Amino acid sequence: MADPTEETSGAQPKAPCDDQPNHPAQELAVVDLACPRKDKRQNSGGSRTIHKTKLGRPAKLSTSLDCTVSKTLTPNRVVELPPNASTDSQDVIARLPHEWEQKVTSWGEPAYRGRQVFEWIHRHGVLDPAEMSNLPKALRARLVEEGVRWPLAMISSHLSDDRTNKLLVGMPDGERVETVLIPQLQDPTVVTQCISSQVGCAMGCVFCASGVAGLKRQMSAGEIVAQVLLGRHELEPDQRIRNVVFMGMGEPLHNYDALARALVLLTHPDGIDLSKRRVTVSTSGLVRQIDRLGRDFGGQVQLAVSLHAVRDEDRSAIMPINRRHGLDELMACLRRYPLSKRQRITIEYTLIKGVNDSIADANAMVDLLRGVPVKVNLIPMNPISASDLQAPDSSHVMRFQQRLTARGLSVFVRKTRGDDVAAACGQLAFHPGKQTEARSLRRA
Ligand code: SAH
Ligand code: SF4
Questions:
Q1: Distance, first Cα to last Cα, the chain
Q2: Which ligand is nearest to the CA of 414?
Q3: Rounded Cα–Cα distance for residues 46 and 44 (Å)
Q4: Comparing C-alpha atoms, which of 217, 173, 47, 103 is closest to residue 439?
Q5: How is 301-345 classified by DSSP, letter by letter?
Q6: In this structure, are residues 301 and 245 in contact, taking their beta carbons and an 8 Å threshold?
Q7: Of 7, 109, 175, 178, which residue is the catalytic one?
Q8: Model confidence over 368-397: pLDDT tens digits?
Q9: Where does ligand 2 bind, in terms of residues with CB under 6 Å?
Q10: Which of 305, 301, 296, 294 is nearest to 277 (CA)?
Q11: Count of alpha carbons within 13 Å of 373, Cβ hemisphere only?
Q12: Which of 333, 348, 425, 437 is catalytic?
């Protein structure tokens, strides 16, 4: 997975397979995740896989706050849920403070207890009511009955040579998704987390492992946000998650209500408190939902758009969504997306050898993007087993970049991260194995 927040402008582009580990992947024994902090894995070279079958207790309040809660410099304004967003009353992890207040008052507790519950879950990452030490015993018991518990169980983690950590997580119905922790190269204490929004994806892009797999189901807002709560427990003590990108499995705008709620939760000042400009939603181009995101969040959430081809016939061949919303419609939508003065839309362009990587393509991209405030991220295609498509060689990537730059675009080549553990873009695909998850969640 490339860290889209880390840009290597002008850097020597790397072929996607250059990063293979020096040592074969190492299988480690089953680890009980009793306390995430105890499980320190020094990366001594070679990627490794750690299987976990239990979801253990999260860190205590003080450690959690010291090590993992992202603090932004400027206070985050509370964002209300979009008025038309639907609410899933079963999704207890996704409740907002006022919803917890209503709930606990209906149980005869004072309203402030509701806010405490929210803070335990989202600020401190404590999802076991027994650990919510400042709540009365009866309320803790009520929360257990209400279904407050981890909606995800950690199945395994795969630590790459470059410290990218791919986490495989299971859900109560046995489905699995992946989320990736990507420490910045210059400052590994700063981490970007790539999260999934669906199990599989319905969009069917031919170069993408999730698309080839197809959509299995939507993720709930609680499941989406719990990836970050879980990710925080996997960090080293000096690390913190500063950026979250919806670039894992799934098309986030095809799961709009859950996405919208997850965005509010991720940026809530009493919870995870990410800065809105540090949350990026990446989309293949669902025009109506891009408009809705712009309306609902006033353009504050970062938008990334997967372009990948600059002519309708080429784009439709690799991205079926283009048959519904062609390039003219997409560009018109991007032009009206509300952006602040200095903000730009990220254009993701996966370079595929012989498909979209000619100099004529580069020239056509410049014409297409004229008048849209963008920066372009070139991603040499990561190979997937279901396709013969490949990346161009690195000198070709550089020529493509140079042409765009010479014609005035701001262009970055994403460094591929974690490809030795298949954590790179488009390599996230779900794995069957219902039994294992069902067991591990029962134990959690
Ligand atoms: N569905 C959303 C977000 C998830 S995909 C979207 O398509 O934007 C995240 C990024 O990975 C997208 O830009 C996607 O096009 C890219 N991607 C998918 N498969 C890839 C592959 N095999 N190699 C490189 N990038 C890929
Ligand atoms: Fe879905 Fe994005 Fe993959 Fe296309 S690239 S199939 S939209 S996850």
A1: 29
A2: 1
A3: 7
A4: 173
A5: SEEEEE---SSHHHHHHH-THHHHS-HHHHHHHHHHS---TT--E
A6: no
A7: 178
A8: 999 999 999 999 999 999 999 999 999 999
A9: 201, 203-205, 208, 210-211, 250-251, 284, 306
A10: 301
A11: 13
A12: 425
pLDDT for residue 437: 31
* Residue-wise pLDDT tens digits, 250-269: 999 999 999 999 999 999 99
| Ligand 2 atom nearest residue 198's Cα | 8
Which of 282, 284, 330, 427 has the most ligand 2 atoms within 8 A of CB, as the residue to mutate?
Answer: 284
Is residue 263 in some structural domain? no
Nearest CA to ligand 2 atom 8: 250
Question: Mean pLDDT for the chain?
Answer: 81
| Distance from C-alpha of 105 to C-alpha of 88, rounded to nearest angstrom | 19
Q: What is the CATH number of the domain that holds 136?
A: 1.10.150.530
**Where do the DSSP E strands lie in 137-197?**
153-159, 165-170, 176-183, 190-194
- What token pair was written down for 4? 């889209």
Q: How far is CA 317 from CA 130, 321, 325, 359, 438, in A?
A: 53, 10, 13, 19, 39
Domain that holds residue 132: 92-146
Q: Does the residue 270 lie in any domain?
A: no
* Residue 77 forms part of a structural domain: no
Encoded tokens for 300: 């504050």
Which ligand ends up closest to the CA of 318? 2
Q: In which element (H, E) is residue 413 found?
A: strand 411-413
**200: which DSSP letter?**
S
425 among known catalytic residues: yes
308 within some domain: no
Token output for 327:
């390039």
H or E element that contains 403: helix 394-406
Higher local confidence (pLDDT), 43 or 391:
391
The 3-state DSSP class for residue 153 equals strand
Counting ligands in written order, the one closest to the CA of 322 is 2
Residue 321 has pLDDT above 60, yes or no: yes
pTM for this model (two decimals): 0.83
Mutate to test the pocket of ligand 1, among 306, 315, 345, 390 (most ligand atoms within 8 A of CB): 306
CB-facing half-sphere around the CA of 334: CA atoms within 13 A: 30
Q: Which of 438, 396, 427, 112 is nearest to 270 (CA)?
A: 112
Q: What are the helix (H) ranges across 119-154?
A: 137-146
The pLDDT score that the predictor gives to residue 438 is 27
Domain count, the chain: 1
Q: Which of 20-24, 227-231, 246-250 has the lowest mean pLDDT?
A: 20-24
